Amino acid sequence: MAGLTMRARGALILTLAGAAAGVGGAWWWYHRPAAGEAGVPEPVPVATIVDLSPVQPLPRSVSLDANQVELGRRLFHDVRLSSDDTVSCASCHAVDQYGVDGRRVSLGVRGQAGAVNAPTVYNSGFNFRQFWDGRAATLEDQVGGPVENPVEMASHWPQVLAKLRADATLQELARRAYGRELDEAAVRSAIATFERGLITPDSPFDRYLRGELDALDGPAKQGWQRFRDLGCIACHQGVNLGGNMYATLGAMGDYFGGRVVSQADYGLYNQTGREADRYKFKVPSLRNVAETAPYFHDGRIGTLDEAVQLMAKLQLGLDLEAADRATLVAFLRSLTGTPRGGGS
């Protein structure tokens, strides 16, 4: 690719990566829930979108059962999910901090350090899989991971339920939400429903897509153009600008060179055992990325400028000038929306 112009290089990357993205997009299209069902937003009328591209604005609201959301909110913040009553979901995914904890890796029971950076819980309902390595198909599946992980919550469902069922308020909420007492399925469903309501609509970029042309300033508009020209959009697209496909970290460079590689660094390979999946991860959403440092699965990158520079080199084979990086960072900052659904 060394002899290609920058625009041609971006077009080639889009062509190659777009094929992979298309598979994920096609799967979602044929398996998508119908608009109007619980938690599924109505589609945005095409006429209201400024730029017809592989990117869509976040919905301003989602329709969810209020009793399930309230039960899920309480459980999300409940430390009794952990073995020693010290760690809740919110410990690593703080809803007042854009769904993260700001650490390189999160701390579990007894202060144990996790293996990967905690991704934001906001807009996670729009991801096609959960966890960096995609090991959970749904948010309901994801809920059980931290509960039984010996580093994170180090508990098990009989222990969790014994504690939660002693809470009369939670039991009453469960009966309202599910027509029965608390059980594992209800806990998983309630937390997942609460998480689906954690969205961040109305970012400047969303407003721009909906027709408010002045919502983006000049540098952000330039960054949006460069984002497409360079080929970033090949992997970061859809309503979440990511979260809908896997990609190899280091397609055109070695991210892991010169250091000890951990099991977590293998990514999707840990689930499939296929060599082609080694170092492959779910592409992270860029929503609110300016608020969710540090970056990458291992939390090793501290700033947006550094992340942009490294991604350009590793994924596109480019050394970007400072001015280019600045416009891209300006665009990324325009993806910060208004947190909704966290409650109190």
From TrEMBL:
Pfam families: CCP_MauG. PROSITE patterns: CYTC (PS51007). Binds 2 heme groups per subunit. Binds 2 heme groups. Residues 67-198, 218-336 form the Cytochrome c domain. GO terms for cellular component: periplasmic space. It is found in: Periplasm. Its main location: periplasm. Keywords: Heme, Iron, Metal-binding, Oxidoreductase, Periplasm, Signal. Heme c 2 binds at C232, C235, H236, M311. GO terms for molecular function: cytochrome-c peroxidase activity; electron transfer activity; heme binding; metal ion binding. Transmembrane segments: none annotated. Its cofactor is heme. Heme c 1 binds at C89, C92, H93. This is C-type cytochrome. It comes from Parasulfuritortus cantonensis.
